[in-house]
Amino acid sequence: MTTAIPKSERSDPRAILRSGLPDRYLVPEDIAEMFEVPLETVYQWRKKRVGPPGFRVGKHVRYDPADVRAWVMKRKAADAAA
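RESULT FIELD:
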């Protein structure tokens, strides 16, 4: 069961993560927009394995919103402990 997301929030990936899990996987452009970083930074995070975990569907990279949320929470906890 997915949470209903208002149409006005569907175009903003940050709003999607705040209000509930979307009914789609996120693309690298969504991650770049969410964290306000260049797209190349998202690709470098993936290459260095320091960013949110993604997976391949053929030649395309996708991100599960639940994994992205868990990665953010882990980062927040690490910063709070530092």
